[in-house]
# Entry
Amino acid sequence: MEKKFVMHFPPILVDKPMISTVVKKYDLEFNILKAFVSPEEEGTLVIAFSGEEKNVFSAVEELKSKGVKIQLIESDIKMVKEKCTDCSVCIGFCPTGALYIDRKTFEVKFDPEKCIACELCIKGCPTNAMISTI
Amino acid sequence: MKTIREINEKIKKGEAVVVTAEELIELKKTSNSKKLVEEIDVVTTGTFGPMCSSGLFINFGHSKERIKMGGGKVYLNGVSAYSGLAAVDVYIGATALPDDDPRNSKYPGEFKYGGGHVIEDLVSGKEVELIAYAYGTDCYPKKYLKTRITLSDVNEAILFNPRNCYQNYNVAVNLSNKTIYTYMGVLKPNLGNANYCSAGQLSPLLKDPYLKTIGFGTKIFLGGGIGYVCWWGTQYNPSVKRKENGIPMVGGATLALIGDLKQMKNEFLKGASLTGYGTSLIVGVGIPIPILNEEILNWVSIPDEEIFAPVVDYSYDYPNSTGKILEYVNYAQLKSGNIKLMGKNVPTGSLSSYKKAKEIAEILKNWIKNGDFLLTEPIFYFPGPESGYKFKPMKEV
# Structure
């Protein structure tokens, strides 16, 4: 299985090899989708772990126990359907096809499984229908 | 040949045959024009997209101690309204912003709230804060006023949009190597995406390319209620290049629209925030087209495949008015989600909601079918290509 997470590293953890430790220990593959360190030295990482389900969650638990704040990505970017006008301007720039249109009904839909939380849709939605819950 | 009067008689009796432009295109595949002209009385159209040249006139009524807002300053939910009119008349435009909005000083600006949002709040029945600063006169002594108003409190609330319903529109792309934020949305570098803004085969003025049925006084669907065409729109240009079928290959005609906001609905008037650009108002418009003869029927039944839009680079060519058009693509290609441009597959997105456009054409169809909406004969028609009327660039000295 593959799961995506948003991880926040407090300044004291930023220079520690946290990810490589759990990846080796739980035999996971990983894909870094986004990473940055803020001027306050807090680290933010958007990462996909793939491996056995129990291993993925053990790795997450271990990181949490060391002080990393973690959210599953599905709970991260949301579509507020009442605000969406189904214009579809988002589907042209969504890099993963998480935002797509049903070509029969012309309804715009959001598949959180495919979202990598790049947040372009938050900037690009004219009616502010895409929100981040971080 | 039919007349509008004859069609109205049928509407009153509940006998008129009304279809949407989309439905007509389907019918055309299995029937011929001669037969369809006999059968069909009215075709409805629809569009729902950001239209920046939109705004609202309001008359607040007079405060007990009178105030003359004219020549002063007026704010609605912090957004500045134009007050250079009589004492308590203002106009709030879709792109107006609060004085303290950071705009693009933190690029790209978010533009979360502006004139378009004030109009949406009012039509939603929400309370809006009114603040006015005046200089005080003998007959209007009050110098400052702060209160809360709703749409039902004010005397008149007249939506007046000097330019709506662009006949056709650019497809925006970005040839530069950095993301740009435009009124056509976010454009990723190196042809990362292409944004268009038209309902294509459902869009009102693409269905009547020479405005043979639409003119001053035409009754329409506006923002969920009734509105009227009250002039040709600003930047009106009938003298543009056309395809053999008569359809303009660039912008073309526009309309000025007017209507009473009090009978409109928030589903069809939405404030818009265009990151890095500003605010706007998304307006829903539907126009009925009477099928008076075969020529009109043929125009109305032109499908997406035969309507072309120009692809323009918004990183250099648009901001510098070079007039360069990269290519032409049709609306069927645009609506497929992908177009081929300069050898590259480019994903497309639309700022105009086709789903809402369909909904509007459907609502208008039902109004007419039920006898609730009669057609109007225009008081006069707008200049055509033969007039030489054009859209000129600015004279700069």
Observations:
- Chain B has a mean pLDDT of 98.
- Residues 55-159 of chain B form one domain.
